[in-house]
């Protein structure tokens, strides 16, 4: 029996549903290509902002007992310093490249979206939910449905038919409100969820380890939180969902798909399983599907809701 | 054992190498192989990669020049103060089974090569060390290396010890006189580039340690990926084989800053 792992995500064809999540590896065309060579179905850029940022001082990324914690702080060369890199990545990649952007104001989001759309990216993920830059940018957009709606509408107005994904936070008390707002504003998909804020203290040094003190938690610790977000969103919206958070194995990916995800984002898994995590996850998905007589992803999507 | 979360360890001893450089002896175990590095957390300031050095069990060392805010803060610390260590991280040097090897170190490169020299001597290899520095005071670990029984070829910019000039020149001359089974180089990239060219021209197998700006140290942030292959210098590197190095086209030309912006080396030719 032949197994088909391909999916179509908001009109974007993917050979398999694993997507490199934003913020992991996506610094250059080369690092994205390295993920493609290791089996990714699509890759997401590290978020680009209006101007160059060096991010927070190290330590910025650590592993703790149940996951990873980071406060890289959205380091990036700024949109104008990134165009050449994005165009190069579009050129060298055979798989779709999803852009990613953040900004402080709706006008800056519009400005970046317009420039990024012209590079040939397959879609743009709007990072509304970085938990590590509150001091610089204030409260995240994704905690406010009205702001999310205004922002997505404005971005959509700039880029026309190019698919737009709203990356949401698991920290809103009801993610479906924000998801519905994004959908109403014209978002083509939702990425759920971003990392969850946390603090890890070194008791010998008597202070938080990360220089930013607060940092986003990812990895296995947040998987059930994220699966719940996908679950709730699947019941609330019609647009496709990229489920992200703690996907290390094919079984993890299938869990998300059964909760209603159309594709899965992989980030921390690059540490847990190595750079070939994409190939490992897709091989394990195939093995599961073969054993359980599933021919394609669509057959499994959302089926946990039927029980 | 590998620490992914910083392990708090005390400074046991501070060795003053010269007016700008100190070696910090740390009490604790760090089971590394030559070529690997640690991410050292200087609380309240920064976390930076340093080559690992060890001379006896139960302790390890890092050698640090006071050049920026964080390293200057580290230089102010005293015996008993705690630092945080993650690692060891990265790829390792590989020794031939027998024969003669050349280690070419500039700046603080000897920190990454010292334990390779130690291991090579334990395996009875002939070890030639081409150590270069600005002046006599900046030549690192001289006494320790004499103890190991390596053959030292010294050079200084001002001629205060050994050959007046660069270690690259000394190495090139020696390559004409005797054969090396393998060469290893760590230091400023312009020096590594010249050593690589000499090795390629003379068919000497070699390994280089390539430094790039690092954040996570364990292969997820993508900051230290090199063009066009995307290899991570904290996982696939920092030690890179000379043949593989040919695929890293950015070597000797440019690197990326903390923001991820490409920055050309001032001395690099265009292209």
Judging from the principal axes of the Cα atoms, what is the shape of chain A?
globular
Q: Number of helical runs of chain B?
A: 6
Taking all residues together, what is the mean pLDDT of chain B? 96
Question: What is the helix content of chain B?
Answer: 10-25%
Task: Provide mean pLDDT of chain A, rounded.
Answer: 96
Q: pLDDT below 50 for ≥5 consecutive residues: which ranges of chain B?
A: none
The most extensive interface between chains reads: A-B, 50 and 39 residues
Radius of gyration of chain A: 18 Å
Radius of gyration of chain B (CA) equals: 18 Å
Descriptive key words:
heterodimer, A: 307 residues, alpha/beta, 8-stranded parallel beta barrel, 4-stranded antiparallel beta sheet, 10 helices, 16 strands, 20% strand, B: 271 residues, 7-stranded mixed beta sheet, 20% helix, globular
What does this 3D model show about the protein?
- The complex is a heterodimer of chains A (307) and B (271).
- Chain A is α/β, with parallel strands linked by helices.
- Chain A contains 10 helices and 16 strands.
- In chain A, helix 3 (106-117) packs parallel to helix 5.
- The longest helix of chain A has 15 residues, at 145-159.
- With 271 residues, chain B is an alpha/beta fold.
- Chain B is globular and about 50 Å long.
- In chain B, the strands form 3 sheets. In chain B, strands 10-9-8-7-11-12-13 form a 7-stranded mixed beta sheet, with helices on both faces.
């Amino acid at each position: 029996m032949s197994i088909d792992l391909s999916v179509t995500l908001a009109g974007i064809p993917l050979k398999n549903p694993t997507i490199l999540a934003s913020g992991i590896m996506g610094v250059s065309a080369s690092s994205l290509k390295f993920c493609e060579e290791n089996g990714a179905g699509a890759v997401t850029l590290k978020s680009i902002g209006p101007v160059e940022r060096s991010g927070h001082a190290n330590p910025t990324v650590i592993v703790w007992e149940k996951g990873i914690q980071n406060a890289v702080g959205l380091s990036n060369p700024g949109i104008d310093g990134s165009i050449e890199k994005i165009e190069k990545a579009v050129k060298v990649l055979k798989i779709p490249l999803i852009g990613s952007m953040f900004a402080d104001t709706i006008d800056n989001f519009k400005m970046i979206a317009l420039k990024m759309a012209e590079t040939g990216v397959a879609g743009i993920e709007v990072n509304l939910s970085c938990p590590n830059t509150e001091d610089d940018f204030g409260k995240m957009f994704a905690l406010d449905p009205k702001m999310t709606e205004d922002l997505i509408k404005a971005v959509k107005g700039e880029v026309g038919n190019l698919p737009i994904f709203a990356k949401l936070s698991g920290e809103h008390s009801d993610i479906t409100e924000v998801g519905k707002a994004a959908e109403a504003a014209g978002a083509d998909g939702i990425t759920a969820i971003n990392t969850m804020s946390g603090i890890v203290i070194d008791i010998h040094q008597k202070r938080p380890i990360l220089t930013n003190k607060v940092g986003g938690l990812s990895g296995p610790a947040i998987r059930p939180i994220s699966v719940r977000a996908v679950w709730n969103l699947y019941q609330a919206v019609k647009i496709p969902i990229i489920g992200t958070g703690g996907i290390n194995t094919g079984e993890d990916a299938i869990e998300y798909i059964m909760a209603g995800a159309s594709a899965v984002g992989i980030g921390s898994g690059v540490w847990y399983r190595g750079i070939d995590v994409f190939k490992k996850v897709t091989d394990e998905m195939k093995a599961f599907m073969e054993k359980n007589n599933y021919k394609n992803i669509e057959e499994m999507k959302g089926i946990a809701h039927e029980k | 054992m590998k620490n992914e979360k910083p392990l708090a360890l005390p400074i046991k001893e501070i060795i003053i190498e010269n007016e700008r450089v100190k070696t910090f002896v740390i009490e604790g175990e760090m089971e590394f192989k030559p070529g690997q590095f640690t991410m050292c957390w200087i609380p309240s300031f920064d976390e930076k990669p340093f080559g690992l050095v060890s001379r006896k069990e139960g302790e390890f060392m890092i050698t640090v020049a006071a050049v920026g805010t964080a390293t200057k803060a580290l230089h102010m610390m005293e015996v008993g103060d705690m630092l945080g260590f993650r690692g060891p991280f990265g790829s390792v040097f590989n020794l031939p089974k027998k024969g003669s090897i050349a280690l070419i170190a500039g700046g603080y490169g000897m920190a990454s090569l010292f334990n390779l020299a130690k291991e090579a001597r334990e395996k009875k290899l002939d070890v030639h060390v081409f150590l270069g520095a600005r002046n006599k005071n900046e030549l690192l670990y001289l006494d320790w290396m004499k103890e190991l029984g390596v053959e030292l070829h010294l050079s200084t910019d001002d001629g205060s010890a050994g050959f007046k000039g660069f270690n690259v020149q000394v190495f090139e001359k020696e390559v004409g006189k005797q054969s090396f089974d393998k060469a290893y180089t760590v230091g400023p990239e312009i020096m590594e580039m010249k050593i690589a060219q000499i090795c390629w021209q003379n068919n000497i197998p070699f390994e280089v340690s390539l430094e790039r700006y690092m954040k996570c140290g364990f292969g997820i942030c993508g900051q230290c990926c090199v063009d066009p292959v995307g290899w991570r210098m904290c996982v696939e590197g920092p030690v890179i084989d000379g043949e593989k190095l040919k695929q890293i086209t950015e070597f000797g030309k440019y690197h990326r800053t903390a923001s991820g912006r490409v920055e050309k080396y001032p001395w690099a030719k265009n292209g």
